[in-house]
Amino acid sequence: MTILSLSHILAFISSPVSEQHSRPFVFAVAQFSLWLPLAAIGIGFKSVVGERTSGSIRILLGQPGTRRNVVFGTYLGRLLILTTTIILALIIVGIVVTIEFGDLGSITDVIGGIIALFLFALAWIGLVVGASSVVASETRAIGLVIGVYTLVEPLWQNLVLRLFALIFTGTIQTPSQASVFYSLENPTWYLYVNRLSPTEAFNAARYYIPELLEGLWYGTAISGPTLPNLFGIAVLIGWATVPVYLGYRQFERVDLG
């Protein structure tokens, strides 16, 4: 993930537009987070179901502990692995950006970008571990998480949002995404529905959270649409908690014999 992120950042640095870029850290966070979902899938899709198919789950449950401990302990363990990867990536990216631009940008950009990235990581680990808790085989687990990834990543703009547009407007035309994070120019339904995707919620949060911190610390005005962006943050928290909770409930009921 770190290598792929750096390749995107280096491409950005070499472009003429980058010379005028005023928020390098916010941009850098967006670049390597493009690969975070795949990293989360690789780290977590076998987390619970792998123990189940290998039979080691019986040993774990034979010791002091419960199925809840297995699921949520696995969740925290996989989150720790992904967080370690993110920290290493941030260190490398921070060095590259500082060398090129002289600094990382404002402190609110750095802290806000890290918070947004951590919420994004929580969302994907919650989704993947939840899926791993629901199914009975590794094949089904990877199929489920890849299916969800496909819907909320490559197919989100061209299929899912168009279906929502058909429901809300009667056509499959979607508004321009250019100002969706900064203004209320787009229709209300679009500002909220678009943020149901964890990626789009993150893309909004990496701009909004720094502005929110700046407003709280320095009293400056927040230019972005407040309610849709708060909704997007709530969506990330929802992706981080609801799938793993539903996975735990299903795992608690299943017969492991």
Automatic annotation (TrEMBL):
Keyword terms, alphabetized:
Membrane, Transmembrane, Transmembrane helix
Q: Where, if anywhere, are coiled coils annotated?
A: none
Q: Does the keyword NAD apply?
A: no
Q: What is this protein called?
A: Copper ABC transporter permease
Provide the GO MF annotations for this entry. Answer: ABC-type transporter activity
Q: Which GO terms describe its cellular component?
A: plasma membrane
Q: Which PANTHER family does the UniProt record give?
A: ABC TRANSPORTER PERMEASE (PTHR43471), ABC TRANSPORTER PERMEASE PROTEIN NOSY-RELATED (PTHR43471:SF1)
- Domain of life from the UniProt record: Archaea
Give the organism's phylogenetic lineage.
Archaea, Methanobacteriati, Methanobacteriota, Stenosarchaea group, Halobacteria
